[in-house]
Batch of 2 targets.
Target 1
Amino acid sequence: MNQFITFVRKEFAHVIRDRKTLLVLFGMPVAQILIFGFALSGEIKDSKIIVVDNARDPVSRKLVAKVAASRYFRIKKGVNRAGEIEAAFKRGDARIALVIPDRFGHDLHHQHEAEIQLLTDASDPNYATLLVNYASAIIRDYSAGINGTSGTPYTIVPEIRMLYNPQLKKEPNLVPGVIALILMLVCVMMTSVSIVREKETGTMEVLLVSPFRPALVILAKTVPYLILSLINIASILLLSVYALQLPVNGSLLLLFGESTLFIITCLALGILISVRVESQQVALLISLIGMLLPTILFSGFLFPIANMPRILQLVSNLIPSKWYYIIVKTIMVKGLGFQAVWKETLILTGMTLFFLVISLKNFKIRLA
Amino acid sequence: MNIPAIRAEKLTKRFGDFTATDAITFEVARGEIFGFLGANGAGKTTAMRMLSGLSRPTSGSAAVAGYDIYKQTDLIKKNIGYMSQKFSLYEDLTVRENIRFFGGIYGLAHDRLRDKTAELLSRLALGGEADRLVGSLPLGWKQKLAFSVAVIHEPAIVFLDEPTGGVDPLTRRQFWSLIYEAADRGITVFVTTHYMDEAEYCHRVSIMVDGKIVALDTPYQLKQQFHAASMEEVFYRLARGAKRGD
């Protein structure tokens, strides 16, 4: 045990001494979360909105006033007909338009329900979603306000049209994807490179000649990366909750547990690479092309798996990150418990065991 | 005790149809400095790896420090030190950290490790450099440090695989004085080299050609036997017929 601690301490010294890598390891998750996060869910103020009020009755004027008063929007003047909206979008004058039909006030009073149209330039889907969400909130708020004055509820149904990109192919939450990416990088790449480095420098031989158990050599080398990754996950979660205001709807404990499982999966992968490979460059290449790229492509966090050809959908099942991504999304976004993710958990556990067994089989206790 | 430090009998290692080490038989006495010579590719490193438990022999038998190399590798590991051909310390750790680490994985207790560290630093005159990164030391110092670390647990035998590659004759001589000190303390030294001046320093020398041991005696006897003025000449005469090499 003392020997093991000696070993782990030495591994930490390696990690800490390499300042540049350390900076990258801790800086990257923060940078990625902030970049991905704010590109996605940062608050947007004073967006120009085109308002085409065909009704011009007291009710519609009140709604327009409410939109104008909001801090999210400023009304773009000079566009007064629905036919001019698209041209305005193309010029870049505005990205959202509110069209109030001419029978708005009449319908609302007589049928207690009126329709309203929201058009957006969805060429930037994230931006468009945000604007629609803001506008819908204002409209909801408005209808709730007028409901208060009379007994019968009024409903305003916003009809939303996303121009240019009607399906809005973008996940609402990149945080799970970023976590998967970071763990792939830290655990798989760093672990495999650090083990292979010892093979290259010849210190591995010295370690294998020593009475220290070879399996413990590998185990000790993974400890710093395990801890590093736990810190990274914690900081990513803190950032997403406090800086991005993305709530963790499910159990934080479960999220951490599942993340630890995925860290172990990644470490197992890193070990697997390192036992098969003899040089740091090859280890790096395999980690990047063989692990990181599939994670980006097939985990579903940038490109929806449902839109892929059948064969690639099948391939995506082999990527551990895909399952982790599903788990984190289910816990963080949907707020569900372990019952909802036990299948994915089982798959990840199976993969981890598989990687470990293969690495053990390949690990040459006696070199060659 | 009359058990030899190393006893190898018809020790053979084959990789496919290539016989790296071909039925070598020899004994090394306790406290002896045994030179293991041969051209590149002659099979020296393979033989050494089998003896140190890194590689499993194809056939033959051997005992290191009295322990069988097939069945008692764990015991062998506790009783040997090893310094590889590639310089084998951590360059990104300090001198002191390297000593601590290697002492630590050989299970040296805290107090003993502290004493050993101090002793080693003063013997190598590295006291002032204890907290310097090993990577910033000159090669000769690194090698002396690597040797001292390899014997930090006072093993019965230390295996040195071309320990002095790439340093000047003066540094090599200093390195050899460390080897003599270790041998005086009773540590058996098994060393491979292709520097013939170093061969002269050994008590006994074996010369391998194409996987076989073709000569084994004291440097003096070998020179007599081959009517040669130096070990260099002995080596040339024997190695000339070699088919392998790079």
Note: The beta strands of chain B are 6-15, 18-28, 33-38, 59-64, 67-68, 80-83, 157-161, 188-193, 204-209, 212-217.
Target 2
Amino acid sequence: MSGPRLKLALEYDSTSRGRHVRDIVSELKRQHWVRGALIVAADGFVIAAELPGTIEVDSMAALAATLGRELETSAQRLGRPSFCTALFSADDGTMFLAASRIGYLVVLAEQQVNVQAIRGALAEAVGLIDAAWAGEAAG
Amino acid sequence: MRLWASRGGREPQTVPEALRRAEQRRREGRDAEAAALVARVLELDPDNLHAHLLAAYLHVARRATAPARQEFRWVLGHDANHARALLGLAGIALEEGDAHECRDLLRRALRFYPEFPEATALLEAVRTREAAPPPAAANATAAPRVDRLRLPGTGRALIIGRADGGLIASQPVADDAKDVSEALARTLQLAAATLGRAGLGPLHRAIVEDDHDAVFTRTDGDLVVSLALPRATDPTQGLLDLNRLWSATLHELGLAAGPPAAAPSSTPADTPVDRTRRVS
């Protein structure tokens, strides 16, 4: 990703984080063969989304958050490390899911998508979020 | 209701303003600040339903299930048909593996609010899960001879199961293989529902990575073959190994004609030949 510049946590004021998170979603959406992207909190709350109009955002977010939580709780029950990224490939496209400090990043892409490019973009997005929210104490 | 004196004009003056600001903080991913605002509201207005609901969400967001459940129940104690509280409790029930409770709560929410997309979507996912028969123990006669299924040199574990979570075979044989197979099935069912909601069609392959492993999975909706490899594994190579084991498994189960894969380097007919790391 070349969009949002990596900033230190202290550089963010109260309003810039909201804009920053929207920038991150926009940057993911700009990747080749990407149809849409969103960040959803673990409770299904949509933090930012850029999805095609054919997809109902709230229900998509609810399912993505439930899937993310299932991956986390399964790993916990089995005594294994929690997931970092997941990819689900279907007939008509691929869905990527990445865990971050503030929620799950979701990318919906065409079949032709370059998997490594999206994985790289997601890793960078998670890094940006971690850097920006480093000072945020657990609620 | 006035809450606290302004200091520099940035602090909320009223309960509604504080709650609005808490919502805004959530939208910015600033959950700790949102929680502080909600806690302050609840100190001053302990029966504020909106604040209890927000508190429940914030507990879910930080994976604190018990206090989240308590807050959702508090809301339902004051509004028995509160759709969002019912949805919240349904999510917790699903997380805890109680699909019946989840379905009942969602139906209750939809009875009063039929146009509730999140509840509808989750209910579809739960129905998918419940439509599958309960996992059965592996049938020794149907189990493939997994010793004939050669794991790649770096392979850590192989799980062969059914889409309902029933374990067919594992390599190496492990005590938790049945639990892994069931967890895998739950994940794939939710992933399939999510892909369906996104209009991407039926699920075929998955790669789930943690700090140590990359788990490559293939399914046709009935059979599930899952191979754990080191995280550093090239995705294309992982998928090649997975496809080889998929073909060999079909052969061992008598579901496909032709000889079993003989060596890790064998490449089944449906293996992607493109090396640009595309997986669909």
Note: Strands of chain A lie at 34-40, 46-50, 85-90, 93-99, 104-109.
